[in-house]
Amino acid sequence: MKKVLFVLLCPLFAFTAMGNPPADTTGMISLKNSFYGYSRTLPVLTATSRDAMPGRMYLYPVPSTGTVYVETTGTGEEDRIIGVFDMTGKAILIQKYGITRGYNRLEVPLPSNLANGTYIISDGTVSKKVVLAR
Length: 134
Known about the structure:
By secondary structure, the chain is mainly beta. A hairpin with a 5-residue loop joins β7 (about 80-85) and β8. The protein has a domain at about 55-130: Immunoglobulin-like (Sandwich). The protein has strands at about 5-10, 15-20, 25-35, 40-45, 55-60, 65-75, 80-85, 90-100, 100-110, 115-120, 125-130. The protein is globular.
């Protein structure tokens, strides 16, 4: 292994990043706690932080002027239904998107007759608030 790239100390663990990782990883992190005698080395995946978090949904810009971009991770070829709801739960827009394995960026155009305010965007599992300010 290569020499230590960085060390981060906290009260419970010392984190050390090392090089020469397995082919599907970008590095290794070593967790050590000498007080409790704990030591473990874990791989760091070759994915961006957003790719590495399946089941998460990110949206921007907030506030929006009319188009919201949704970033999500897929586990394979699948359809994802994105809904836009007002604060009472009334569906404003329901749209189906085809997504692929890994990172996906979806463009969700908000209806032009939609009033400024706070809305919920959901994929049925994760829901996020977005503010519309035209």
